[in-house]
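Same chain as my last thread, 317 residues:
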Amino acid sequence: MRARGPVRAAQAAGARGQRATLPAVTARSEVPSSFRSSSVRPGPLALIRIGITESLARRRLIAYLVRADLKKTGADTVLGNVWWIVDPLLQMLVYYLLVGVILQRDRYEDFPLFIFAAILPWKWFDATVKAGLGTVVGAERLIKQIYFPKLVLPIAVSASGVVNFLFGLIPLVFMMIVFYPHRLTLWILLVPVIAIVQVVFSTAVGIAVSALNVFYRDIGNVARHLMRFWFYLSPTLYGLDMVREITAKQGELAPVIKTWYAINPFTYLIGAYRDVIYYGTAPHWSGLANVGIVSLVLLTLAILLFKRLEPNFAKVL
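reply #2:
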């Protein structure tokens, strides 16, 4: 009977030692390592890698968010998803009446197609940026309740914009087959290549504004006005030949105008769309490649910015 005491004591001591070696499961240990403390916060490259891997791992969640967004957009109107086809046509009609009929400045043949080839990609970019502004702010309750990689929110918005753009291609193809068959060439098959470059650029801008708008709500109002200026300061309703003519007439402002159109990504994006759709030629490959490289850099920086600010979203919201 006496031997049982030391045996029990040894067993108890062994059990205590075993328990001591097991890691304690706490709420803190369940939080991703990148958010536990500033002292162990990953570096820039690690944050970028985490953002990319988390997004790739949540492909099903992104697809669900895209479907939900498309269903919500279609359910809020009588015509539903038909608006994705009708809206760019109505915009084209408005600008054609303003520029071509009222102001009589349609110096280009087949002016409706000339405008539509620029309005369609711009509408896609404009919708992506404006939707991205509210994507994180609008998910306030969800962010405070559960953990998930918030980066999927602006990515899903960008993916929804791609679907809308695909719907917009329906009236474009219809116009070219019925009204402008002489403009239809095999170069139009390069539209997806140009669209890929725009996807990268639009996603980068959407991710950046979605994160910044959480902390600075004025960015939403400023961005809407900047987008309006950006539209008119891009070759949407006019061509680069008019820009060169205006630059030739301006003395002191000529360097500023040249610099702006040289660094404006939509100078090359809209020019590329018009090349393959309106002019029936190959796009300006060097300009398009430069935009693609810059867009990849911007996307990387946008992901880094988002992941840096992400741990504070719940506190600010």
